[in-house]
Specification:
The complex is a heterodimer. Chain A is an alpha+beta fold. Helix content of chain A is 34%, strand content 26%. The longest helix of chain B is centred in the C-terminal third of the chain and has 37 residues, at 862-898. Classes of the chains: A alpha+beta, B alpha+beta. Chain A: InterPro entries: ExoRNase_PH_dom1, ExoRNase_PH_dom2_sf, PNPase/RNase_PH_dom_sf, Ribosomal_Su5_D2-typ_SF, RNase_PH.
Chain lengths: 261, 991
């Protein structure tokens, strides 16, 4: 007889430890990395995290368009963020100067600046274009992963491959929330340098109930990043092997060798 | 695997990728406003590690309350499943309709149906239809039984049972049925040697059943069970889905058929239909509150046909009638004439609040013809609110059918060919129509209070169909009737669930300054509380000191409930749902668990307690110089009763007695505040309330006493009013649109007209222009010979006003915030957080206003606040009605025990309508009872102008006028089925 507006509706988890899409709390969505999907740029990557798909392209290092933008000791990193009109349930044009996209672009830029050796490319410009092709939660994380992958594909020097993953929900702590889970849960996006264990970004717009909850969420998000890294690393290695061997005309042999290794 | 699962429960499992199998499903749906097509894609992972479903494993190692439910465990292997299942019993798989309609069978079958499998598809469909049943199912799955094994099967995620949605032309319903059948098939194939039974009442689904399991209807299976377990009586519990009256199938439908769910949602989306919750005060009148743009409007539903089988609380789709069928706002809503009931009882203190006032919605729309009340008819039911009802069965009367109930019973009751009988059940809840019930044990149920569950309401049945759930006890028994009246008023009276108790602080919680940092230590202040004797939940305490500059420091200290009740916890939600404590004559139903109500929050004397304090500096002539709000820790030095406080006020000055001095100072200030309030136009109203003296063992009433109102009562009241007004101003300044306030609308002139005319007939005048004039005219309306007349007038004027209501300040214009009775521009409730939820909200708002704690998220949502206020108003009203019903019940017990009594009474109203039965209404001040006196006289003369009737009595001719004093006899009259009612008979006139 309790009132419907007082009810917590997440009973599926209570009954069988499964989330609404059939994952367990500690499972990230299926991920796919494709590199070199666009030919005319220095580097490109298409990343899918569940139903979220993001395309990132890297151009540069090039000359700066305006002389005044140049920095004498390092490269300028510019990130542009856009969304395809078909990326959400309803079809609509999203202007590129949307405040949330500008903010996301800035966050991606900060995350990647922590990893790219910008001082190796003085007086130049590196541009990253990110396009959301399909949106189902974890937009920022997918964008960072895609950008990071594209940067690697472009062959820029990096400290580490930036990996991003979100966690939230607090009780239970869930990793890699999809859009439906994002809507009614606390969600914290986190990006890190997985091989160094350095957090380069963490962003949360909700109020966490306690300090201890923050610790748990952050810990889970970092574990999520490491899991993302495992998938991303494999994809990068595979792609590198493929490129290297295709130059030498031994693609198939090389692939089978890596599989053995 | 098993170890894996345990570690998962503790959150230590490694992060890894989801399983590689997944499906995508795409839905298209049009948007509400512009009809754009939305494409929604969702993803679902298919798992092969789900084994044979989930069960709840008792993991509690100790008896801590928060772990009673255990944790879900996956049954990973066949031997494990075989170990869990109760041996030599079939596995029962249920479908959606069985869950929805046969929940009572599933719950009560117990040992007879030990192995139960609930597929997720069924559970989710259940949630879309009836939340109550969904909750019950979840509880069933989560409870740990010794003799039952309930398994939850997440079929959409299981590789063996998931169904692709590729085939075109299959309705979602059929697809869900297919999914549930696959679950049955899965168990049938994987459990050789164990019979698997698929319970469904759907014939088509039974026909499609495969050979690996057996499909049965619930009625069939119950018959099988009853043959093997003779002790079981489940067949009464089986819900009636088709019309009970077999010969009615040929009859034309009485009601219009409801629209299908898809047609409804399309109609609602296109704006042709509106969606809303049906609320009714009895089963003749109903309203549906709909949203029209940003406004909420109440639509009146008139008559059975327009109402089209909807019951109170249903979410319905309503079509508005054309403008020509709307009714004028002046026309009173159709109400069942209460006058027809001959019984006497405890009358309401105030007028019925209109729906518009209760939930802060409008019930008229301005059109060209003026303000009209919209009407509509119900075309379909979005979600049924069939809750269990308590009441009794009426049967055919042997002689002439007297009451309406007996007439209905005579018409509808019949014997069925299969040995059962259909009888008519009348819920005590007047909002619900009679229910037709098929039972094998009619004679045993007659004269008992029983609980009945509503099942369905086919279009060709006059009344809804239901089935018997349980017997409460014999009608008329005090405890039985108390439970019935709680059910009737929908008052939550179950014990607090474990999740709520888990929110309590530990038993040995120590109240100390260290345990809650940031509080002001006020333990040095001589704080004392003044309450009725025997009060357990003391939520307010006072102190008063003389400051060095000659001013007074006055403090009101309110129990700091929000320190223990954190927002959003199970306890908070439970309290928000209950909204108020309910006080009955023989028991108290608390809003919060007893540990808080009577111990940790209660400001008892000689212990440290957390409090929320309002501190004023007041000049000796009663002007407030400054005010301060603080969370504090206090130490009460005395818990006084009103009587003790009064004796302090009366005794001569004694500067050494700290308590007496404080009380005296407070009394002086209270008098000044009171005078100021009365000058501003506050009303002094009266109530005929009495209290029972209960026998200490049987709790039967032995005597009736009037409430003694002392100056000490007024003292406490005065400071509470001051605190409430001060806090209301403070929170309103900080949160102008989010404050929970209390308003009292100015009375309607037409409500007062009868009273003014009655007063005129004895030469008194009442002026209701504003509250000041009303207060003055009431003060002036004295009859020298009988001072009680004045009190009577005050009681009657209270009845002409609607009760005060909670509302959220953002919903109404500032001019509507006014509290008429107190003549205050803003008012709220702050002083009783132990027993009212509104006060809890206000505490949170105040804490946020003074930057002690952040405002909880949900309190900043206006629509949540609206729902909260509506619920608080509804519960508050229900608690009052239940309290009054409890007094009424005890009045009956009192009179039936002692037999008839003679008593003085005042005439309140004389029925001067032509053609009506000669009668008049009296009130008996001694017992606070009022009722109708019927006269068996043929020759009656009526004088409407003078409010007088005259008739020829047995010995002499009599004449009775309004406000006359008469002598009456009170007695209890027995009715059918051990029902009783109080009767008042006229004896003689007193001069």
């Amino acid at each position: 007889m309790s009132q419907p507006w007082l009810r917590n509706r997440n009973h599926l988890f209570v009954l069988c430890n499964l989330r609404t899409d059939g994952r367990k709390a500690s499972e990230i969505r299926r991920m796919r990395f494709q590199m070199g999907v666009v030919d005319r740029v220095a580097g490109s990557a298409l990343v899918e995290m569940g139903l979220t798909a993001v395309l990132a392209t890297v151009t540069g290092p090039t000359e700066c368009i305006r002389r005044t933008d140049e920095l004498h000791d390092r490269a300028v990193l510019q990130v542009h963020f856009a969304a395809a009109p078909f990326c959400t349930a309803d079809r609509r044009h999203v202007p590129t100067n949307d405040r949330r996209f500008l903010e996301a672009a800035r966050l991606v830029q900060r995350a990647l600046e922590a990893s790219i050796f910008l001082h190796l490319y003085p007086r130049s410009l590196i541009q990253i274009h990110i396009t959301i092709l399909s949106e189902d939660g974890g937009r920022l994380c997918a964008a960072i992963n895609a950008a990071s992958c594209a940067v690697v594909h472009a062959g820029l020097a990096v400290k580490d491959i930036v990996c991003a993953c979100a966690a939230g929900g607090v009780d239970p702590v869930m990793v890699d929330l999809n859009r439906r889970e994002e809507m009614d849960n606390i969600n914290m996006a986190c990006a890190m340098l997985p091989q160094r264990g350095t957090i380069v970004l963490s962003q949360c717009e909700a109020r966490l109930p306690s300090r201890e909850a923050l610790d748990r969420v952050l810990e889970t998000a970092m574990d999520g990043c490491r899991a993302v890294f495992a998938v991303m690393e494999a994809a990068i290695r595979e792609n590198a092997t493929l490129q290297w061997s295709s130059k030498r005309g031994k693609a198939i042999v090389a692939l089978s060798e890596t599989n053995v290794v | 695997m098993n170890d894996d699962e345990t570690s998962c429960a503790e959150g230590e499992e490694d992060i890894r990728a989801a399983p590689s199998l997944y499906t995508r499903s795409t839905y298209y749906r049009p948007t509400m406003k512009r009809g754009k097509i939305l494409k929604q894609v969702t993803e679902r992972y298919l798992r092969d590690d789900l084994g044979y479903g989930c069960y709840y494993k008792d993991t509690s190692t100790d008896n801590r309350v928060d772990r009673v439910h255990g944790t879900p465990q996956i049954i990973s292997s066949l031997p494990e499943l075989q170990r869990l299942l109760k041996p030599s019993q079939p596995v029962v798989v249920v479908d959606t309709n069985v869950l929805l309609h046969q929940m009572d069978v599933l719950q009560q079958a117990g040992k007879a149906m030990p192995n139960l499998v609930v597929p997720q598809t069924a559970l989710e469909e259940c949630r879309n239809h009836r939340m109550v049943i969904y909750d019950q199912t979840v509880d069933l799955l989560r409870s740990i039984h010794k003799e039952r094994c309930t398994i939850f099967f997440p079929d959409p995620y299981h590789t063996a049972t998931s169904v692709e949605e590729k085939e075109e032309g299959i309705s979602p319903n059929d697809l869900n049925d297919e999914r549930i059948r696959r679950v049955a098939e899965f168990y049938g194939k994987s459990l050789p040697g164990v019979s698997v039974i698929f319970l469904t009442d759907d014939v088509a689904s039974r026909e499609k059943a495969s050979r690996s399991y057996q499909a049965m209807s619930v009625r069939q299976y119950v018959q099988v069970l009853e043959q093997t377990n003779p002790g079981l009586s489940l067949s009464d519990l089986v819900a009636a889905q088709t019309s009970v009256l077999s010969n009615e199938e040929d009859e034309a439908p009485l009601y219009e058929t409801h629209l299908e769910a898809t047609a409804l949602s399309r109609g609602i989306q296109s704006g042709k239909l509106y969606r809303g919750v049906l609320r009714s005060s009895d089963w003749n009148t109903a309203h549906v509150t709909i949203r029209r743009g940003d406004e909420r409007v109440a639509v009146t539903v008139q008559g059975d046909l327009d109402r089209n089988r909807a019951v109170d609380g249903d979410v319905v789709a309503i079509a508005l009638h054309p403008l020509t069928k709307w009714i004028s706002s002046a026309a009173a809503p159709v109400t069942s004439s209460v006058k027809d009931t001959p019984s006497a009882g405890i009358a309401s203190e105030t007028a019925e609040p209109t729906l518009a006032e209760m939930s802060n919605v409008r019930d008229t729309i301005a059109v060209e013809q003026g303000e009209l009340r919209p009407t509509g008819k119900i075309v379909g039911i979005v979600r049924r609110n069939f809750e269990n009802q308590s009441g009794s069965i009426f049967t055919k009367s042997s002689g002439k059918a007297d009451s309406e109930q007996e007439k209905i019973a005579t018409k509808m009751e019949r014997e069925n060919p299969d040995g059962t009988a259909t009888c008519v059940f009348f819920p005590v809840n007047k909002k619900i129509p009679p229910v037709l019930l098929r039972t094998t044990q009619r004679d045993r149920l007659f004269g008992q209070r029983i609980v009945v569950s509503l099942d369905s309401w086919p279009a060709n049945s006059r009344y809804p169909l239901g089935h018997y759930v349980r017997t409460i006890g014999p009608a008329g028994d005090k405890d039985v009737e108390t439970e019935v009246l709680l059910q009737q008023h929908d008052i939550p009276h179950e014990p607090f669930p474990a999740a709520v108790l888990a929110c309590l602080p530990p038993e040995d919680y120590k109240i100390s300054a260290e345990n809650s940092p940031g509080r002001v230590d006020l333990r040095h202040l001589p704080v004392l509380s003044i309450d009725p004797p025997g009060c357990k939940d003391i939520d307010d305490a006072l102190h008063c000191l003389v400051l060095p500059n000659g001013n007074y420091q006055v403090g009101v200290h309110i129990a700091d409930v929000t320190h223990y009740v954190k927002p959003g916890t199970a306890m908070d939600l439970e309290a928000a749902n209950r909204s108020t404590s309910t006080y009955l004559v023989n028991k108290r139903l608390d809003m919060l668990p007893a540990l808080l109500t009577t111990d940790l929050c209660s400001l008892k004397c000689n212990v440290d307690r957390y409090a929320f304090s309002v501190l004023w500096e007041v000049s000796p002539d009663g002007n407030i110089i400054q005010v301060d709000f603080q969370k504090s820790i206090i130490h009460s030095i005395a818990a006084l009763t009103y009587q003790q406080a009064q004796s302090f006020i009366d005794q001569p000055d004694d500067p050494t007695d700290i308590q007496a001095c404080a009380v005296k100072r407070l009394a002086v200030l209270a008098r000044k505040f009171r005078q100021r309030r009365i000058d501003a136009g506050a009303l002094t109203l009266a109530s005929p309330e009495v209290k029972f003296v209960l026998d200490s063992e049987s709790l039967n009433p032995t005597d009736v006493q009037a409430y003694a109102l002392l100056e000490a009562n007024a003292l406490v009241e005065e400071f509470m009013l001051l605190a409430n007004v001060t806090v209301a101003k403070k929170i309103l300044r900080q949160y102008p649109t989010l404050s929970v306030l209390r308003r009292h609308p100015a009375p309607n002139r037409s409500m007062f007209d009868p009273l003014i005319s009655k007063a005129q007939s004895i030469g008194l005048s009442i002026n209701i222009e504003d509250s000041k004039k009303l207060a003055d005219s009431l003060d002036a309306a004295q009859v020298k010979s009988d001072p009680y007349i004045n009190k009577l007038l005050r009681i009657l004027s209270t009845r002409c006003m609607s009760p005060a209501q909670y509302f959220c300040s953002g919903e109404l214009r500032a001019s509507e915030w006014h509290h008429y009775g107190l003549a205050a521009p803003v008012y709220t409730h702050f002083t009783s957080p132990i027993r009212r939820y509104a006060d809890v909200c206000v505490h949170r708002l105040l804490a946020a206003s003074i930057n002690v704690a952040p405002l909880p998220q949900h309190l900043s949502s206006k629509s949540y606040m609206h729902d909260l206020c509506t619920n608080m108003n509804r519960r508050h009203r229900a608690a009052q009605l239940a309290g009054r019903a409890s007094v009424q019940l005890h009045t009956l017990i009192y009179f039936s025990g002692d037999g008839a009594k003679e008593e003085d009474a005042y005439v309140l109203d004389v029925d001067t309508d032509k053609g009506s039965d000669p009668s008049f209404t009296v009130m008996v001040p001694r017992y606070g009872i009022e009722g109708r006196v019927r006269l068996d006289a043929a020759e009656v003369e009526r004088f409407p102008e003078e409010h007088r009737i005259a008739w020829a009595g047995k010995t002499k001719s009599c004449s009775v006028k309004v406000f006359d004093k008469v002598r009456v006899r009170l007695s209890v009259r027995e009715m059918q089925g051990d029902q009783r009612e109080l009767a008042i008979d006229f004896i003689e006139q007193k001069l």
